[in-house]
């Protein structure tokens, strides 16, 4: 187990290095130039050149990359070219909004999606199972920004139960207000998440439903439900866990849309603004940190697999 | 000219597919392109009245957030919109109708040749950090703008300024290279703000002399200003002003409806109409200098042919576009009605598709043309689509190329790589762009340049107005650009709030006269 951990950790570091090159290179393919964005349309070409020189964006790309990598290795992911704020500082601030949003949506989506998925599989020939299946299809098909808009119109504008958007000025120092402002965004995001997981869990469970070991378990006297819960679900959850890891990445991207709909000052919204400004140092720092988080989640999923699946443990 | 659309684009992104690799994740992040805009509207009333609440906080919904607080470095209109007149002041300042009044100067004298401006500093002015305003602060601020190697994006505004000196502690003398009939106006722009000498960290904080102190900035959310109780002039009517930035039009509308903001910038005609007859809200309409300009690349064929440009202008029914958008005013040139040298030029190149087709045939394009229209994604797609469909009817096949504004800046503005372009030229008094041969529309006309200089250096207002009017007419007669419409400012305010600006609300949003009625 320890050996596997070390190997996975090494892979994680190599992946991060590759990611840093890819992120850096891909961003340089974008048209546009931060110096021109800062200078705007009244400035002369000479002024634009001077700003580029100040920012160091006129240096060769390899030098720029090594300079950035050096900073990353010493713990400094970079600073915004537009307003000088540190990437890690601002991302940390933004994640106090995006983090709870994505975590709560993942948790809620997983809880509801997985349990309903098992139910839908167990009752796949009955009316309730079919209704669940259709509902999950619907949840996948409806765009999240539309769900968010409708939820706001009904619960915030019409009934005034919850705020229509934004995040309290005091952040988590006003816990009640912060939680209230996240209710609709979390529900909207969790709806999609839940629908995806419901479908995966349902099909994974359906597959194990006819497995030999379940028949054996029933032959030993377990009821159908007990056999499914004790032996089936554990097997069915393996692919679901993988999906959950991947879904986490797409949830971060889904948060971009949700943050816009609910005007939440989160990381997704920040990234969109930074890309628009061509604040590449800030974007690459942010993307690298987010990539690191996703890779770590993938790492944890792997570890989870090993814990769930004794075959992997023994195979080393 | 600048970005700032009263209509932010609507986000209609679908959920991205499940991503597996680092490369795919990176690519997906790169696909999330920025979109936003600036703009608004407003109405005014008196401040300091009885029955108002001086302890109130007013929240103003805006669309475009500044990217930095450093007014000497950032080019976006959004910085000046929140900071100018509120936190930073110049020797002079202007209100939302364009009226120029003394601010940090109590008055000034101009020499008969128009080359020397002597400003008398207002006594007793202090910066927010407690330091008194001195002539040295004025000299250092203005000198930094015009210094060689200056990276101030608005340095061009003070191009006529040769030197700044202080003969005694109470006065500052500005010496010009040549007469500049717009000089006092330029002093009211971001180029003219007076900072404490040696001020650093302008990107994170703002030490000004205005009626509000900078309090805090939550990136991606809001900027808060607090009343400066040591202000030299009439104290602000409210204790706090929060500028909240909401790009999504529906979110902005919901924030107004639910009282999260007291005044909101709402451009969408349907949303505005939903407030009609509602006694809880006031819909405020105002003017802007937002000229939605269809730029022609006159430096290359076929648009170097004036007949082709006339044909394109005559092929687009501007009234129809205004109807589609539900907002906007028709203009026939680069000068909005709020400028003294405005003239109605809408009679030039009237909508006449038959004549447009004939002009195209005459210019050697009897079977029509193929052109590319490069347009930033910050504007509603309906504008470009309307233009393309109109031009199709006169035989011009238009390919729309939507780009991010940052890409537009590089491709179109810097490299002149385009045929047609639509951009909202927000900045006031930008007629001089047509006198710049290196400007992106590739228009190099010595006569226009000479006329413009005559206007700049005129010795009377009448001569100035005559010259600028002639420039605007000539540029329109040569169909250098087409002016699709002049934007309008629209705000919805909670009843019981007064004193907010109505016009040009995306340029300078002076909040000092806002008052909240006690209910």
Topology of helices and strands:
The complex is a heterodimer of chains A (316) and B (519).
Chain A: H1 2-28, H2 34-39, H3 45-55, H4 61-73, H5 87-122, H6 127-141, H7 144-158, H8 175-209, H9 212-219, H10 224-261, H11 267-277, H12 280-308, H13 310-315
Chain B: H1 22-31, E1 57-62, H2 77-83, E2 92-94, E3 100-102, E4 105-110, E5 116-121, H3 135-146, E6 161-168, E7 171-176, H4 183-187, E8 212-218, E9 222-227, E10 240-245, H5 249-257, E11 263-265, H6 269-273, E12 281-296, H7 306-314, H8 318-325, H9 353-362, E13 369-376, H10 381-392, E14 396-403, H11 405-414, E15 420-425, H12 446-456, H13 461-477, E16 481-494, E17 497-498, E18 515-516
Parallel strand pairs in B: 1-10, 1-11, 13-14, 13-15
Antiparallel strand pairs in B: 2-3, 4-5, 5-7, 6-7, 8-9, 9-10, 11-16, 12-15, 12-16, 17-18
Helix pairs in contact in B: 7-9, 12-13
Task: Using the coordinates above, name the CATH class of the domain at 291-486 in chain B.
Answer: Alpha Beta
CATH topology term of the domain at 91-279 in chain A: MetI-like fold
List low-confidence stretches of chain A. Answer: none
CATH class of the domain at 91-279 in chain A: Mainly Alpha
Describe the largest sheet of chain A: none
Provide a count of the helices of chain A: 13
Main sheet: strands, sense, barrel of chain B: 10 strands, mixed
Count the E strands of chain B: 18
> What proportion of the residues of chain A is helical, as a percent range?
over 70%
Largest interface: A-B, 82 and 73 residues
């Amino acid at each position: 187990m320890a050996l596997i951990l070390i190997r996975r950790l090494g892979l994680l570091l190599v992946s991060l290095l590759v990611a840093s090159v890819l992120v850096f290179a891909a961003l340089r393919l974008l048209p546009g130039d931060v110096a021109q964005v800062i200078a705007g349309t009244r400035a002369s070409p000479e002024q634009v050149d001077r700003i580029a020189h100040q920012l160091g964006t006129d240096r060769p790309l390899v030098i720029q990359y090594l300079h950035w990598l050096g900073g990353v290795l010493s713990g400094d992911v970079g600073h915004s070219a537009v307003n000088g704020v540190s990437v890690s500082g601002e991302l940390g601030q933004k994640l106090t909004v995006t983090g709870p949003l994505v975590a709560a949506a993942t948790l809620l989506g997983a809880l509801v999606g997985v349990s309903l998925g098992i139910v839908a599989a167990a009752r796949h020939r009955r009316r309730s199972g079919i209704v669940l299946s259709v509902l999950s299809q619907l949840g996948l098909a409806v765009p999240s920004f539309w769900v968010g808009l409708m939820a706001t119109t009904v619960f915030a504008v019409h009934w005034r139960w919850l705020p229509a958007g934004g995040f309290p000025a005091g952040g988590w120092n006003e816990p009640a207000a912060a939680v209230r402002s996240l209710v609709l965004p979390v529900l909207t995001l969790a709806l999609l998440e839940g629908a995806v997981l419901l479908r995966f869990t349902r099909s994974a469970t359906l597959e194990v439903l006819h497995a030999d070991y379940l028949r054996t378990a029933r032959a030993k006297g377990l009821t159908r439900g007990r056999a499914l819960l004790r032996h089936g679900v554990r097997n069915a959850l393996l692919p679901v866990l993988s999906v959950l890891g991947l879904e986490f990445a797409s949830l971060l991207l889904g948060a971009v849309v949700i943050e816009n709909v609910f005007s939440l000052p989160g990381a997704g919204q920040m990234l969109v603004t930074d890309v628009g400004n061509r604040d590449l140092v800030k974007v690459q720092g942010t993307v690298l940190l987010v990539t690191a988080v996703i890779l770590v989640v993938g790492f944890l999923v792997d570890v989870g697999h090993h814990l769930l699946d004794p075959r992997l443990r023994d195979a080393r | 000219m600048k970005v700032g659309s009263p209509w932010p684009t609507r986000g209609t992104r679908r959920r991205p597919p499940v991503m597996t690799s680092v490369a795919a994740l990176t690519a997906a992040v790169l696909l999330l392109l920025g979109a936003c805009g600036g703009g608004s509207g407003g109405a005014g009333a008196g401040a300091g009245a009885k029955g108002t609440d001086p302890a109130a906080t007013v929240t103003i919904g805006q669309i475009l957030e500044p990217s930095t607080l450093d007014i000497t470095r950032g080019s976006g209109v959004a910085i000046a919109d929140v900071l100018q007149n509120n936190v930073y002041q110049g020797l002079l300042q202007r209100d939302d109708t364009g009226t120029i009044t003394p601010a940090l100067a109590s008055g000034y004298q101009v020499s008969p040749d128009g080359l020397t401006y002597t400003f008398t500093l207002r006594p007793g002015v202090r910066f927010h950090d407690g330091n008194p305003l001195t002539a040295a602060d004025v000299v250092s601020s203005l000198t930094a703008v015009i210094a060689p190697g200056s990276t101030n994006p608005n340095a061009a505004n003070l191009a006529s300024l040769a030197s700044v000196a202080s003969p005694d502690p109470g006065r500052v003398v500005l010496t010009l290279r040549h007469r500049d009939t717009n000089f006092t106006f330029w002093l009211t722009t971001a180029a003219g703000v007076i900072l404490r000498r040696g001020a650093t960290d302008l990107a994170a904080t703002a030490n000004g002399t205005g009626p509000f102190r900078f309090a805090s900035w939550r990136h991606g959310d809001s900027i808060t200003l607090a009343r400066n109780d040591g202000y030299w002039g009439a104290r602000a009517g409210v204790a706090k002003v929060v500028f909240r930035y909401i790009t999504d039009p529906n979110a902005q509308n919901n924030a107004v409806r639910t009282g999260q903001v007291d005044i909101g910038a709402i451009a969408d005609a349907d949303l505005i109409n939903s407030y009609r007859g509602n006694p809880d809200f006031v819909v405020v309409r105002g003017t802007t200098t937002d000229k939605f300009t269809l730029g022609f690349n006159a430096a290359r064929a076929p648009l170097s042919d004036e007949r082709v440009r006339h044909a394109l202008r005559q092929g687009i029914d501007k009234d129809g576009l205004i109807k589609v958008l539900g907002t906007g005013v028709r203009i026939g040139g680069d000068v909005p009605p709020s400028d003294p040298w405005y003239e109605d030029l809408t009679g030039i190149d009237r909508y006449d598709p038959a004549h447009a087709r004939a002009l195209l045939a005459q210019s050697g394009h009897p079977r029509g043309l193929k052109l590319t229209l490069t347009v930033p994604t910050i504007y509603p797609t309906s504008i470009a689509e309307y233009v393309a469909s109109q031009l199709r009817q006169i035989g011009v096949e238009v390919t729309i190329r939507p780009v991010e504004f940052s890409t537009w800046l590089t491709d179109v503005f810097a490299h002149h790589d385009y045929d047609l372009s639509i951009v909202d030229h927000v900045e006031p008094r930008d007629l001089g762009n047509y006198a710049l041969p290196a400007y992106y529309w590739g228009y190099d006309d010595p006569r226009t340049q000479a006329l413009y200089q005559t206007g700049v250096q005129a010795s009377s207002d009448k001569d100035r107005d005559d010259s600028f009017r002639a420039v605007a007419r000539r540029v329109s007669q040569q169909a250098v650009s087409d002016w699709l419409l002049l934007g309008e400012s629209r705000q919805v305010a909670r009843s019981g709030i007064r004193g907010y600006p109505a016009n040009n609300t995306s340029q300078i949003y002076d909040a000092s006269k806002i008052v909240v009625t006690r209910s």
